[in-house]
Amino acid sequence: MNYRIKIAQACITALSLLAAAQMGSAQEPQTWKHGLTASDLDSSFSKMASQHDFAANQGVDLEFVKFNSDALALKALIAGEIDSYEGNPSSPIIAASKGVEIKLVGCYWPGLTYGIFSKESIGSPKDLVGKTVGISAPNSLPDILTRVILGNNGIDPKEVKFAALGNDASRFNALYAGAADAVAASTSYTPVIQNGYKLLVTALDAAPKFVRLCTYMSPQTISERRDDAVRFLAAEMGAVDYALQNRDEFLEFARDQARLGQDDPRPPYIFDEAAKYKAIDPTMPIPVDRLDWLKQLLIEAKSVAKDFNVEEIIDDTLRPDALKLAKVD
User: Fold this and answer.
1) Which of 19, 59, 163, 261 has its CA 20 to 30 A from that of 97?
2) Coil, helix or strand for 278?
3) Is 7 contained in some domain?
4) How far apart are CA 154 and CA 12, in angstroms?
């Protein structure tokens, strides 16, 4: 009898240990790889998720992966090398028109704080005819925005030379070196533009419907890792909301991320601009009408293979649950 009792007790102990091990495993943070396409400075809003345990508190081990263009981030997402990325909607819309399965799940930076910078001698966008404009890559945000602004000024983009010159910093170096007459880039560079150059036009004035940054995932990731996806979004929402409410702390964090000095005017400039125009929204809305507007532009530019309902690339099922977890409104 005692023997049977000992066996039973041993089984109960073993089951308890197994249950505890499984519980501990379930509570371990799940790795989530998120791609960034904006500059280190602009990406700081999103990267705040790594601070104050925003990600850890949601059970997410968040890893950021830097890409020099939206196209490269999209390829990595399709290949399964990352779980999500944030970038301009142009590349995903173009890809979706070609049959690529991708889902837009929210846009924390719906306002486009971007512009075209040029030599002082260029008076208006109409003066870009015959000039060289620096972009990052074909069908990228700088490329599409430049084409929109040219079109709004009655200029055929074919009358302008486009040069793929890398990221924002590389494009400005090319501008200063004379390899380009103008470049499309983040307006965070406005307060440090060198003498002889200027901000020619801003997207907020010239293309107010243009969306800057949205977050994308594959349908497979959403299906197989829905809970992780919701928790990742909640971490991002909480981080962006915290950043907007804590200016000084964000500026310190942004300077560190972008390796900028204390007297560099760019962090406060981009923060104040985003706050002034409400360009950043921690609830990560999905502006369907503006996405459809962009799709129509891409159709006119013959970048989209075929027309389709833009809502086909949208998945708005994660946001409601993420908002509840993040407690952001």
Assistant:
1) 163
2) coil
3) no
4) 79
3 in any annotated domain: no
CA–CA separation, 318 and 231 (whole Å): 9
Banded model confidence at residue 103, pLDDT cuts 50, 70, 90 = very high
End-of-domain residue from the set 157, 178, 206: 206
- Domain assignment of residue 82, given as a range: 30-111+211-326
Angle 247-258/226-245 helices, nearest 10 degrees?
A: 110
In the chain, DSSP finds a helix count (H) and a strand count (E) of 13, 10
Beta bridge partners of 33: 63
Domain count of the fold of the chain: 2
> Which CATH number do you get for residue 182?
3.40.190.10
State both tokens at 299. 């159709």
pLDDT tens track for 116-162: 999 999 999 999 999 999 998 888 889 989 999 999 899 999 999 99
Q: What percent of the chain has pLDDT over 90?
A: 77
Is there a single domain that holds both residue 82 and residue 219? yes
Instruction: Note the residue count of the chain.
Output: 329
pLDDT value of position 27: 57
Q: Is the pLDDT reported for residue 25 higher than 70? A: no
Residue 80, in any domain of the structure: yes
CB atoms within 10 A of CB 183: 30
Name the nearest CA neighbour of 217 among 18, 80, 67, 68: 80
SS3 135: strand
| 50: pLDDT strictly greater than 60 | yes
Are the C-beta atoms of 175 and 182 separated by less than 8 Å? yes
Kindly state whether residues 157 and 219 are assigned to the same domain.
Answer: no
Q: What is the average pLDDT across 285-291? A: 97
Task: Examine the domain organization and report whether 92 and 105 are in the same domain.
Answer: yes
